[in-house]
Design a protein that fits this description.
Strand content of chain A: 35-45%
Structural class of chain B: alpha/beta
Shape of chain A: globular
CATH topology of chain B: Purple Acid Phosphatase, chain A, domain 2
Low-confidence stretches of chain A: 5-23
Number of helices of chain A: 1
Order of helices and strands of chain B: HEEHEHEHHEEHEHEEEEE
CATH class of chain A: Mainly Beta
Mean pLDDT of chain B: 90
CATH architecture of chain B: 4-Layer Sandwich
Shape of chain B: globular
CATH class of chain B: Alpha Beta
Oligomer: heterodimer
Strand content of chain B: 15-25%
Structural class of chain A: alpha/beta
Number of helices of chain B: 7
Low-confidence stretches of chain B: 6-18, 20-31
Radius of gyration of chain B: 18 Å
């Protein structure tokens, strides 16, 4: 009887962990929506965690844009009329620039933001 | 006492204003250029820009540069203008107005041959359409005194790509050159990753560099970053030119790529143009930076 009880308790103790892993597997990377319009990204400061996979869902309110994070060697086009996805896992901590890398007009040079990875 | 060009450049070097630019000695070839020569590089005039905090003489700086070039003691063989002739605008009519005004101003240059290249401000919003109406093809070659010049367009695609078609054209052109050819590449954006965080790169610039690497005598002159910068990719030197509208900070030296404010105590500081003297049959280039003179 005692043996059975111990087994049950042990299984119960594992349950939240198993459930958590299953939930993570179901939900996948953290999704961060970023909207672009000339010449602003919203949001333009984004907090990430080192080692945590993320997927950016990128949309534009007006023209064709780019989303480039040179320090992580990743980029994506932001095509009008669709949700453009970019997934990666930050492997280092710090503050990193992201920018529009498709020339979009007079304010293009200031169209950027920061990723703060902790 | 008259000073010849070579003596002048040596004096400039002593004063710290000149650098001896790239070019490794290649094999001597008897079909050599006939003589040393020099050309002038102008860049980034951004005609149409308005911003008194960074240049209260925005409409006067380009004409002053033209006057300064015309006042050179010895006339250059030709002039190259490495892009961003005009400042960008969404309005196609205004874009053509600026291109026309620019062309009118530089028509006062007392040098017969001027080779123009576009910058992203001129060409990226309409894929070079208006620019070509005024200045013709955006990529081309020419030869001068045995030196092969290649103008590459990395701005008509707003994504800063040279593109497969132009890269194939470049490969075909290079295939016709002897291995010891003396080659100068003229372009707007850096062909290497100078500072991608500030959009100071060409997305497929590495592909162009790979095509150029087999040639021992290659030098690249470009604009875009509004300051003098010298960089080596292996044996190939890259030299960026100053602007004729406002300077920009050194690459990644501050968080944002904002223009350097106008310094009333030192007007036109950081602006200028350069002389490039081909020496040793175009295997070496001596660069002399010159200021835009005030009124």
């Amino acid at each position: 009887m005692d043996g059975q009880r111990r087994t049950f308790l042990a299984a119960a103790g594992l349950f939240p962990l198993v459930l958590g892993a299953a939930a993570l597997a179901r939900s996948g990377p953290r999704v961060i929506k970023v909207s672009a319009r000339r010449f602003v990204f919203t949001p333009n400061e984004i907090a990430l965690k080192k080692g945590e996979p993320v997927t950016f869902e990128l949309t534009t309110e007006d023209v064709f844009m780019g989303f480039n994070v040179p320090d992580f060697g990743v980029r994506a086009d932001i095509v009008p009329g669709r949700t453009n996805r970019l997934s990666f896992t930050p492997d280092k901590a710090g503050t990193f620039t992201f920018l529009c890398d498709v020339f979009c007009g007079e304010g293009h040079e200031s169209m950027n933001g920061t990723l703060v990875v902790t | 006492m008259k000073i010849d060009r070579r003596q002048f450049l040596q004096l400039g070097a002593l004063g710290g204003g000149a650098v001896l630019a790239s070019g490794l000695a290649g094999c001597a070839d008897m079909a050599a250029p006939e003589r040393d020569f020099y050309f002038v590089q102008l860049s980034d005039s951004h005609w149409g820009f308005e911003g008194p905090a960074v240049n209260p003489d925005a409409r006067g700086t380009l004409p002053k540069a033209v006057a300064a070039v015309n006042a050179l003691a010895e006339r250059p063989d030709f002039i190259v203008f490495t892009g961003d002739l005009t400042h960008t605008t969404d309005n196609p009519v205004e874009r053509r107005k600026r291109l026309g005004e620019f062309r009118e101003i530089v028509s006062a240059l007392e040098v017969r041959t001027v080779h123009f290249m576009p910058g992203e401000h001129d060409a990226s919003l309409d894929h070079g359409k208006a620019w070509m109406e005024f200045f013709g093809p955006t990529h081309y070659t020419f030869d001068h005194e045995g030196v092969h010049f290649i103008a590459l367009d990395n701005v008509s695609d707003p994504a800063a790509r040279i593109g497969d078609e132009q890269l194939a054209w470049l490969a075909a052109d290079l295939a016709k050159q002897p291995k010891d050819a003396r080659i100068v590449v003229l372009t707007h954006r850096p062909l290497f990753d100078l500072a991608p965080q500030w959009d100071w790169a060409t997305r497929d610039g590495a592909s162009a560099m790979a095509l150029l690497m087999p040639f021992p005598n290659v030098t690249v002159f470009y604009g875009h970053i509004h300051q003098e910068n010298h960089h080596m990719t292996g044996h190939i030197a890259h030299h960026s030119a100053k602007s004729l509208i406002f300077p920009l900070p050194a690459p990644l030296s501050q968080p944002k790529r904002t223009p350097v404010p106008w310094d009333a105590a030192h007007p036109y500081r950081g602006l200028g143009f350069r002389e490039v003297e081909a020496e040793d049959r175009g295997e070496k280039f001596a660069i002399q930076e010159l200021p835009v003179k005030g009124a």
